[in-house]
Design brief:
The complex is a heterodimer.
Chain A lengths: L1 E9 L5 E10 L4 E5 L6 H8 L7 E6 L2 E2 L8 H5 L2 E4 L11 H11 L4 H14 L15 H13 L5 E5 L7 H16 L3 E5 L3 H6 L3 E6 L2 E4 L2 H5 L1
Helix pairs in contact in A: 3-4, 3-5, 4-5
Chain B lengths: L7 H4 L10 H25 L1 H34 L6 E5 L5 H13 L3 E7 L1 H12 L16 E6 L6 H12 L4 E5 L2 H43 L1 H9 L4 H44 L11 H29 L4
Antiparallel strand pairs in B: 1-3, 1-4, 2-3
Helix pairs in contact in B: 2-9, 3-7, 3-9, 3-10, 7-9, 7-10, 9-10
The chains are: A alpha/beta, B alpha+beta.
């Protein structure tokens, strides 16, 4: 599903965020990406969502080389990837409904057509009763659920999450991870970047570990134990 | 539409949209546009002061050229009304027989570019001169009539412009019987020159003002875009194309134009109303009833279209530069 081949990324100014990273996440697989802050987790996710381009090597999604994606095609690639952020990235002056419906509206759905799907997505994350609220009226955990609902409302085959549990207590974090597990069960590939090692330890998933831009542990053996 | 995952929608069990027939999707295009247009009108309403300032600038900038245009239009129509200005007076040689004068009159009547010819015999000329000059009786002491016969030629419609009238004058003057010909051309030429000058100034002024309107609208839209930076980033993250993000801003520009155009109408009408009473007072002194012509329906429509065009151009300028440059981080 996601394949990195000898990927390096050097930012302008000379900071090398990733060097010679190789890995492959299978379709329908769930994996964690970990490492201390500044190790390159966010850069790696940005390469997948085309917010950055690699300096060397190539990134493939479903066998498609992202180097061949023109800037005008980037939006269409992003529609295939559900993205979840630590800071939720919600539109604060729009209701929960409008936030979750946004990806559908962008794809050309009318509000009426989107309604059923939005409600279904909100039900899945357990906040169907908050549809008319504004994000500010919600707790951190609930805001994160809105972000997740927005990511899954188009039923993408791939979910990326950047520190989705960053601001949440352990109990809430585990609930969020359980949500991801549910999506994974219906065949969605999930890649979660987190530095919450305690959380990972309790789960038995493949863990990719980055250190100073290098992949030091693919964790395949762990998950096969 | 999926680039990376072919048949994605089928794989996921056909979405609602996939099942919509093409004609319904076609109908939805204008509906979507209308929805976005109304949404951006609502957006204007949320920040009425700043929006109205831009609209007022747009409208008032158009008021000056359109008022000047009304001025030029009316002056031109006055100039057209003064036919006498294009009257050609032919002074005939004194040694002509009456029959020769009559032949010349008929000839001139038939020649090209002449509408009518009026003969003022020298006796009648002297009578008129006596009456109007105030010399009265004194002229009786003259042993002979010093005045020549005069033909007053009114050029045809097609020969009334200063240039054509002068051509006619030169042509008529060449005739053997004519001593010399005269026309109050200088005056007409000067008026035409002034009108041309005003028209040129009007054109230049209009261009400069339109350009500044485009820049002002562009700047307002730019600020709009920058204040929505975060929102634009989020939209890009969930896969919005530039075109999709641009559309509401372009509609905002169109609304600026629509309402700015109305402002221009109102301000121009007010200005004309203000000037009209002064013009009527002035023309009463000349004892010529005069009606100031305002803008016609077609001209109002043109002003409106120009306003909308400027609004759209300004927002397009801002949108092109700034939406592309905002990229999610």
């Amino acid at each position: 599903m996601i394949r990195f081949e000898q990927v390096s990324k050097t930012y302008r100014g000379g900071h090398q965020a990733l060097s010679h990273v190789d890995f492959h996440v299978e379709p329908g697989e769930m994996a964690f990406l970990t490492g201390h802050s500044g190790a390159g987790k966010s850069t790696l996710l940005k390469l997948i969502s085309l917010m950055e381009r690699p300096t060397a090597g190539r990134v493939l999604i479903n066998g498609h080389d992202l180097r061949k994606i023109k800037p005008s095609q980037v939006p269409y690639v992003r529609r295939d990837i559900g993205m979840i952020f630590q800071d939720h990235r919600l539109l604060m002056d729009k209701t929960v409904f409008d936030n979750v419906a946004l990806p559908l509206i962008i794809e050309g759905y009318s509000v009426q057509e989107a309604r059923k799907r939005v409600v279904a997505a909100l039900e899945k994350v357990g906040i169907a009763d908050k549809v008319k609220h504004y994000p500010k009226m919600l707790s951190g955990g609930e805001q994160q659920r809105v972000g997740i609902a927005r990511a899954i409302v188009t039923k993408p085959p791939l979910l990326l999450a950047d520190e989705p549990t960053g601001n949440l207590d352990p109990k809430l974090s585990m609930e969020i991870i359980r949500l991801f597990e549910e999506f994974n069960k219906v065949g969605v590939a999930v890649l979660i970047a987190t530095h919450d090692l305690g959380l990972i330890a309790r789960l038995r998933y493949r863990t990719l570990t980055l250190k100073d831009g290098r992949m030091i542990n693919d964790g395949l053996e762990d998950s096969e134990l | 539409m999926s680039l990376l995952f072919r048949n994605r929608s089928i794989e996921k069990g056909a979405s609602n949209r996939g099942r919509l027939p093409w004609w319904r999707r076609l109908i939805m295009v204008p509906v979507h546009h209308a929805q976005q247009a109304i949404a951006s009108l609502g957006e204007l309403w949320r920040n009425p002061f700043a929006s109205f300032m831009t609209m007022a600038v747009l409208g008032l900038s158009l008021t000056l050229p359109s008022s000047l245009y009304v001025l030029v239009k009316n002056t031109t129509s006055i100039a057209d009304n003064w036919q006498e200005a294009s009257e050609v007076t032919l002074f005939l040689r004194k040694d002509l027989q009456q029959s020769e004068v009559d032949t010349l009159k008929t000839q001139t009547e038939l020649s090209e570019g002449v509408e009518s010819v009026r003969l003022i015999p020298k006796e009648q000329g002297l009578e008129e001169f006596k009456k109007e000059s105030g010399f009265g009786e004194t002229l009786d002491y003259l042993s002979s009539n010093p005045l020549p016969d005069v033909l007053v030629v009114i050029p045809a419609e097609s020969h009334r412009s200063p240039q054509r009238a002068e051509e006619l004058l030169n042509r008529l003057e060449k005739q053997r019987e004519v001593a010399y010909a005269k026309m109050d051309l200088e005056w007409l030429n000067r008026l035409q020159g002034i009108l041309n000058l005003i028209e040129d100034i009007l054109g230049a002024l209009a261009v400069v003002l339109c350009l500044s309107v485009v820049l002002i609208v562009g700047n307002t839209i730019r600020l709009n875009i920058l204040s929505k930076r975060d929102e634009i980033m989020v939209m890009k993250l969930v896969g919005a194309t530039n075109a999709f993000i641009q559309r509401p801003f372009l509609y905002t520009g169109v609304w600026y134009g629509i309402i700015g155009g109305l402002v221009a109408w109102l301000a121009t009408a007010l200005l004309i109303w203000w000037v009209e009473s002064a013009v009527v007072d002035l023309t009463e002194l000349y004892e010529t009833p005069f009606q100031l012509n305002g803008l016609t329906l077609g001209e109002l429509l043109i002003i409106w279209l120009v306003a909308v065009g400027l609004g759209l151009a300004g927002s397009y300028l801002a949108v092109r530069r700034h939406i592309q440059s905002i990229e999610p981080e």
